[in-house]
Write a sequence for this structure.
């Protein structure tokens, strides 16, 4: 990439690492900037895949809530749930706490103690992850422009690049190995999943750890997110954030919450000659700070969120004290 060489003074492109793994060490020496990607919703639109995997797990265990029937999350209900609670296990706990705890295989015994509830949620999550891996392999595709931008960052020896996800490591690695690929992963400076940190997004811990790995101040680490949960994590780490909303999202006004740019919901980062976000635009040669003036009027809000919505048949309404967009599993 001649532009990358020009930006870095002709330095050699970074070498590939030996293996693709979580929490890799930095491949980039003395980077000018870092580019950190969320996974679910940014690299791939996965929310519908997560919903299908949860329902498959519920069906596998024959979950029934006494007096309400089987547990099955509709598209509409899952959108509300995903916009209310971050993380897979917290999502199930929130649902069961509000609608009643279920029994396995339609039996009469429901979990009463916290230990029993934890055991049930762990079993459901483990099975959900297995279903999810199979679904990802057959149905997941990359969002527009994301692999192009990752490749541009990898080709630039003075830009550190990483992926920081709130998802469980097993499911996360299935997604990134299928979509990003082992060769790209081996060239990244940071690869972290939710299991690698003690606190998940919106806590900023994962981004603070990424910053430490690449050895840069927060102002020089740009985060690409799709959710208010992720935006809050970036803001908590004092990192500038670009939002690429998912087409399925009920999108709030991200700019009001601190996003430096909000991309078109149907375009994402963009591909081809008219790509909205390129490495050259984001990190101009000799610039001391990132640039967020991509042209095209990006940064305007795309709708707003409000209230709770009742689920469809076989699901239950959720009260939403605060809706947060797309931090569910990514």
């Amino acid at each position: 990439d001649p532009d990358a060489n020009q930006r870095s003074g002709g330095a050699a492109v970074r070498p590939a690492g030996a293996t693709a793994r979580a929490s890799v060490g930095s491949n980039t020496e003395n980077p000018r900037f870092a580019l950190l990607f969320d996974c679910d919703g940014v690299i791939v639109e996965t929310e519908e895949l997560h919903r299908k995997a949860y329902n498959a797990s519920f069906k596998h265990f024959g979950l029934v809530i006494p007096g309400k029937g089987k547990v099955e999350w509709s598209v509409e209900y899952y959108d509300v749930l995903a916009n209310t609670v971050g993380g897979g296990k917290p999502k199930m706990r929130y649902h069961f706490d509000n609608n009643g705890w279920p029994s396995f295989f339609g039996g009469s015994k429901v979990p009463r103690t916290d230990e029993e509830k934890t055991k049930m949620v762990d079993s459901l999550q483990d099975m959900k992850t297995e279903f999810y891996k199979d679904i990802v392999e057959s149905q997941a595709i990359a969002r527009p422009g994301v692999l192009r931008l990752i490749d541009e960052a990898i080709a630039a020896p003075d830009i550190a690049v990483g992926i920081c996800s709130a998802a469980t490591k097993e499911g996360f690695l299935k997604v990134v190995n299928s979509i990003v690929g082992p060769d790209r992963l081996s060239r990244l400076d940071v690869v972290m999943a939710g299991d690698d940190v003690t606190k998940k997004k919106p806590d900023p811990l994962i981004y603070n750890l990424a910053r430490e790995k690449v050895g840069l101040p927060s102002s020089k680490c740009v985060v690409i997110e799709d959710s208010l949960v992720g935006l809050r994590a970036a803001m908590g780490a004092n990192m500038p954030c670009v939002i690429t909303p998912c087409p399925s999202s009920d999108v709030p006004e991200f700019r009001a919450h601190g996003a430096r740019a909000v991309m078109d919901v149907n375009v994402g980062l963009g591909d081809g000659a008219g790509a909205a976000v390129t490495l050259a635009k984001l990190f101009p040669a000799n610039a001391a700070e990132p640039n967020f003036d991509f042209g095209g009027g990006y940064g305007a809000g795309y709708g707003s969120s409000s209230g709770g919505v009742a689920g469809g048949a076989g699901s239950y309404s959720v009260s939403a004290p605060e809706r947060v967009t797309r931090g569910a599993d990514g």
About this structure: DSSP finds eleven helices and eight strands in the chain.
